[in-house]
Amino acid sequence: MHRLIVSVVPKNSAEIVTAVANKAGSAGGSVLLGRGTASNSIIQLLGLGDTSKEIVLTIVEKGIASDVMSAISGAVAEKKHFGVMFSVAVPSFVKSGEVNGNATENGNPEKNNNKGEDDMAEAVNTKENAYEMINIIVNKGYAEDAMAAARKAGAGGGTILSARGTAKEGDEKFFGMEIVPEKEMLMILVTADKKDAVLGAVKALPCFEKAGSGIIFCSDVESFSVLGK
Fold first, then answer.
1. In this structure, how many other beta carbons lie within 10 angstroms of the beta carbon of residue 203?
2. Which one, out of 11, 85, 102, 153, has a CA that is 20 to 30 A from the CA of 34?
3. Quick check: 144 and 200 in contact, CB under 8 A?
4. By the 8 A CB rule, do 175 and 215 touch?
5. Is this structure's pTM higher than 0.85?
6. Which residues of 132-162 are buried (b: 16+ CB within 10 A; e: fewer)?
7. For residues 62 and 160, what is the distance between their CA atoms, to the nearest angstrom?
Protein backbone atom coordinates (compact mmCIF):
# COMPACT_ATOMS: atom_id res chain seq x y z
CA MET A 1 0.00 0.00 0.00
CA HIS A 2 1.30 3.43 -0.96
CA ARG A 3 0.28 7.05 -0.46
CA LEU A 4 0.20 9.88 -2.99
CA ILE A 5 1.34 13.11 -1.33
CA VAL A 6 0.14 16.23 -3.16
CA SER A 7 1.80 19.56 -2.33
CA VAL A 8 0.49 22.77 -3.90
CA VAL A 9 3.16 25.46 -3.56
CA PRO A 10 4.14 28.79 -5.16
CA LYS A 11 5.91 28.83 -8.50
CA ASN A 12 9.63 27.97 -8.32
CA SER A 13 9.21 26.34 -4.90
CA ALA A 14 8.80 22.70 -5.90
CA GLU A 15 12.51 21.94 -5.46
CA ILE A 16 12.23 22.73 -1.75
CA VAL A 17 9.54 20.07 -1.37
CA THR A 18 11.22 17.42 -3.52
CA ALA A 19 14.61 17.85 -1.81
CA VAL A 20 13.14 17.45 1.67
CA ALA A 21 10.94 14.54 0.58
CA ASN A 22 13.94 12.73 -0.89
CA LYS A 23 15.89 13.10 2.35
CA ALA A 24 12.90 11.66 4.24
CA GLY A 25 12.82 8.54 2.08
CA SER A 26 10.94 9.44 -1.09
CA ALA A 27 12.36 8.06 -4.32
CA GLY A 28 11.29 11.10 -6.35
CA GLY A 29 8.22 12.84 -7.68
CA SER A 30 6.65 14.83 -10.50
CA VAL A 31 5.98 18.55 -10.73
CA LEU A 32 2.98 20.01 -12.58
CA LEU A 33 2.26 23.65 -13.33
CA GLY A 34 -1.09 25.22 -12.51
CA ARG A 35 -2.80 28.33 -11.24
CA GLY A 36 -4.95 29.05 -8.22
CA THR A 37 -8.51 30.31 -8.56
CA ALA A 38 -9.47 31.60 -5.10
CA SER A 39 -10.15 35.26 -4.47
CA ASN A 40 -7.79 37.08 -2.11
CA SER A 41 -10.41 36.89 0.64
CA ILE A 42 -10.52 33.10 0.46
CA ILE A 43 -6.94 32.01 1.04
CA GLN A 44 -7.73 28.38 1.75
CA LEU A 45 -7.64 24.80 0.51
CA LEU A 46 -6.33 24.52 -3.05
CA GLY A 47 -6.87 28.17 -3.95
CA LEU A 48 -4.40 30.50 -2.23
CA GLY A 49 -4.99 33.28 -4.76
CA ASP A 50 -4.95 33.73 -8.53
CA THR A 51 -1.24 33.03 -8.96
CA SER A 52 0.97 30.47 -10.63
CA LYS A 53 1.39 27.23 -8.67
CA GLU A 54 3.51 24.14 -8.77
CA ILE A 55 1.90 20.83 -7.81
CA VAL A 56 4.33 18.23 -6.52
CA LEU A 57 3.18 14.60 -6.73
CA THR A 58 5.12 12.13 -4.59
CA ILE A 59 4.26 8.45 -4.13
CA VAL A 60 5.75 6.82 -1.05
CA GLU A 61 5.26 3.64 0.93
CA LYS A 62 2.54 3.90 3.54
CA GLY A 63 5.00 3.38 6.39
CA ILE A 64 7.00 6.53 5.66
CA ALA A 65 4.19 8.81 4.44
CA SER A 66 3.82 10.56 7.80
CA ASP A 67 7.58 11.11 8.08
CA VAL A 68 7.76 12.61 4.59
CA MET A 69 4.82 14.93 5.22
CA SER A 70 6.22 16.01 8.58
CA ALA A 71 9.59 16.75 6.97
CA ILE A 72 7.95 18.90 4.29
CA SER A 73 5.87 20.79 6.84
CA GLY A 74 8.89 21.44 9.03
CA ALA A 75 11.03 22.69 6.15
CA VAL A 76 8.55 25.44 5.20
CA ALA A 77 7.10 26.19 8.63
CA GLU A 78 8.43 29.76 8.64
CA LYS A 79 7.24 30.62 5.13
CA LYS A 80 4.04 32.66 4.98
CA HIS A 81 1.05 31.24 3.05
CA PHE A 82 3.31 28.70 1.38
CA GLY A 83 0.62 26.29 0.23
CA VAL A 84 -1.27 23.15 1.16
CA MET A 85 -0.47 19.44 1.36
CA PHE A 86 -2.65 16.34 1.50
CA SER A 87 -2.42 12.62 0.82
CA VAL A 88 -4.63 9.99 -0.80
CA ALA A 89 -4.41 6.21 -0.69
CA VAL A 90 -2.88 4.36 -3.65
CA PRO A 91 -4.06 0.73 -3.45
CA SER A 92 -2.08 -0.30 -6.57
CA PHE A 93 1.26 1.05 -7.71
CA VAL A 94 3.16 -0.13 -10.79
CA LYS A 95 6.71 0.86 -11.67
CA SER A 96 8.50 -0.06 -14.86
CA GLY A 97 10.20 -3.42 -14.37
CA GLU A 98 8.18 -4.45 -11.31
CA VAL A 99 4.70 -4.61 -9.87
CA ASN A 100 4.39 -3.34 -6.31
CA GLY A 101 0.62 -3.37 -5.88
CA ASN A 102 0.43 -6.70 -4.01
CA ALA A 103 4.11 -7.49 -3.47
CA THR A 104 5.91 -7.99 -0.19
CA GLU A 105 9.47 -6.89 0.52
CA ASN A 106 10.62 -10.28 -0.81
CA GLY A 107 8.72 -9.79 -4.06
CA ASN A 108 6.09 -12.41 -3.26
CA PRO A 109 2.39 -11.72 -3.56
CA GLU A 110 0.49 -10.95 -0.37
CA LYS A 111 -1.54 -13.86 0.93
CA ASN A 112 -4.42 -11.53 1.65
CA ASN A 113 -5.48 -10.22 -1.76
CA ASN A 114 -7.99 -7.90 -0.10
CA LYS A 115 -5.35 -6.06 1.95
CA GLY A 116 -5.50 -2.99 -0.28
CA GLU A 117 -9.28 -2.84 -0.02
CA ASP A 118 -9.11 -3.32 3.77
CA ASP A 119 -6.60 -0.47 4.14
CA MET A 120 -8.79 1.76 1.99
CA ALA A 121 -11.86 0.98 4.06
CA GLU A 122 -9.91 1.73 7.22
CA ALA A 123 -8.81 5.10 5.82
CA VAL A 124 -12.35 6.04 4.84
CA ASN A 125 -13.55 5.35 8.38
CA THR A 126 -10.93 7.47 10.16
CA LYS A 127 -11.65 10.91 11.55
CA GLU A 128 -8.76 12.29 9.51
CA ASN A 129 -10.68 11.62 6.32
CA ALA A 130 -12.68 14.88 6.41
CA TYR A 131 -11.87 16.11 2.91
CA GLU A 132 -12.64 15.06 -0.66
CA MET A 133 -10.63 15.90 -3.76
CA ILE A 134 -12.86 16.61 -6.75
CA ASN A 135 -11.17 16.40 -10.16
CA ILE A 136 -12.91 17.92 -13.16
CA ILE A 137 -11.58 17.56 -16.72
CA VAL A 138 -13.19 19.83 -19.33
CA ASN A 139 -12.34 21.39 -22.65
CA LYS A 140 -10.15 24.47 -22.41
CA GLY A 141 -12.03 27.58 -21.32
CA TYR A 142 -14.62 25.91 -19.09
CA ALA A 143 -12.65 25.31 -15.90
CA GLU A 144 -13.36 28.84 -14.64
CA ASP A 145 -17.10 28.26 -15.12
CA ALA A 146 -16.84 25.02 -13.16
CA MET A 147 -14.92 26.79 -10.37
CA ALA A 148 -17.48 29.60 -10.19
CA ALA A 149 -20.29 27.08 -9.78
CA ALA A 150 -18.32 25.10 -7.21
CA ARG A 151 -17.59 28.24 -5.19
CA LYS A 152 -21.30 29.11 -5.06
CA ALA A 153 -21.91 25.61 -3.70
CA GLY A 154 -19.40 26.10 -0.89
CA ALA A 155 -15.96 25.37 -2.33
CA GLY A 156 -13.21 27.74 -1.25
CA GLY A 157 -10.95 27.55 -4.29
CA GLY A 158 -9.20 25.24 -6.68
CA THR A 159 -6.18 24.73 -8.90
CA ILE A 160 -6.41 24.60 -12.69
CA LEU A 161 -3.94 22.51 -14.68
CA SER A 162 -3.47 22.75 -18.43
CA ALA A 163 -3.72 19.38 -20.12
CA ARG A 164 -4.28 17.74 -23.48
CA GLY A 165 -6.03 14.69 -24.79
CA THR A 166 -3.97 11.67 -25.85
CA ALA A 167 -6.26 10.12 -28.43
CA LYS A 168 -5.01 9.64 -32.00
CA GLU A 169 -6.56 11.48 -34.90
CA GLY A 170 -9.52 9.40 -36.03
CA ASP A 171 -10.39 8.15 -32.56
CA GLU A 172 -13.84 9.28 -31.52
CA LYS A 173 -13.46 9.63 -27.80
CA PHE A 174 -11.02 10.25 -24.98
CA PHE A 175 -12.42 9.10 -21.62
CA GLY A 176 -15.86 9.43 -23.23
CA MET A 177 -15.10 12.98 -24.40
CA GLU A 178 -15.09 14.27 -27.96
CA ILE A 179 -11.55 15.05 -28.99
CA VAL A 180 -10.53 18.63 -28.27
CA PRO A 181 -6.73 18.79 -28.06
CA GLU A 182 -6.50 21.27 -25.19
CA LYS A 183 -8.04 20.39 -21.84
CA GLU A 184 -8.16 21.87 -18.38
CA MET A 185 -8.17 19.89 -15.16
CA LEU A 186 -9.65 21.55 -12.10
CA MET A 187 -8.68 20.16 -8.68
CA ILE A 188 -10.93 21.22 -5.81
CA LEU A 189 -10.47 20.22 -2.18
CA VAL A 190 -13.66 20.42 -0.10
CA THR A 191 -14.91 19.14 3.22
CA ALA A 192 -16.78 15.87 2.77
CA ASP A 193 -20.15 17.40 3.66
CA LYS A 194 -19.91 19.82 0.69
CA LYS A 195 -18.99 17.23 -1.91
CA ASP A 196 -22.51 16.45 -3.16
CA ALA A 197 -23.48 20.12 -3.40
CA VAL A 198 -20.36 20.96 -5.40
CA LEU A 199 -20.83 18.00 -7.74
CA GLY A 200 -24.46 18.94 -8.30
CA ALA A 201 -23.59 22.54 -9.10
CA VAL A 202 -20.89 21.59 -11.60
CA LYS A 203 -23.01 18.93 -13.31
CA ALA A 204 -25.81 21.47 -13.78
CA LEU A 205 -23.62 23.76 -15.92
CA PRO A 206 -24.60 24.19 -19.59
CA CYS A 207 -21.15 22.95 -20.65
CA PHE A 208 -21.99 19.56 -19.08
CA GLU A 209 -25.33 19.20 -20.87
CA LYS A 210 -23.73 17.74 -23.98
CA ALA A 211 -22.77 14.08 -23.67
CA GLY A 212 -19.02 13.61 -23.45
CA SER A 213 -18.25 17.25 -22.68
CA GLY A 214 -16.41 16.51 -19.45
CA ILE A 215 -15.67 14.03 -16.68
CA ILE A 216 -15.54 14.28 -12.90
CA PHE A 217 -13.93 11.88 -10.44
CA CYS A 218 -13.38 12.09 -6.70
CA SER A 219 -10.81 10.79 -4.21
CA ASP A 220 -10.88 10.51 -0.43
CA VAL A 221 -8.24 12.67 1.25
CA GLU A 222 -6.58 11.01 4.22
CA SER A 223 -4.78 13.99 5.70
CA PHE A 224 -4.69 17.70 5.00
CA SER A 225 -2.47 20.48 6.27
CA VAL A 226 -1.59 24.07 5.48
CA LEU A 227 2.09 24.64 4.71
CA GLY A 228 3.90 27.59 6.25
CA LYS A 229 2.59 30.17 8.69
1. 14
2. 153
3. no
4. yes
5. no
6. bbbebbbbeebbebbbebbbebebbbbbbbe
7. 28
Half-sphere exposure of 19 (CA within 13 A, CB side): 7
| Residue burial 104-120, b: 16+ Cβ < 10 Å; e: rest | eeeeeeeeeeeebeeeb
Cα–Cα–Cα angle for 155, 157, 158, rounded to 5 degrees: 115
Name every residue whose Cβ is closer than 8 Å to that of residue 75 and which is 6 or more positions away in sequence.
16, 17, 20
As a whole number of angstroms, the distance between CA 35 and CA 32 comes to 10
Q: Cβ neighbours of residue 107 under 8 Å, at least 6 residues apart? A: 98
Radius of gyration of the chain from Cα atoms? Answer: 18
| Burial status of residue 101 (CB atoms within 10 A of its CB: 0-12, 13-18, 19 or more) | middle
In a 13 Å sphere around the CA of 92, the CA atoms on its Cβ side amount to 6
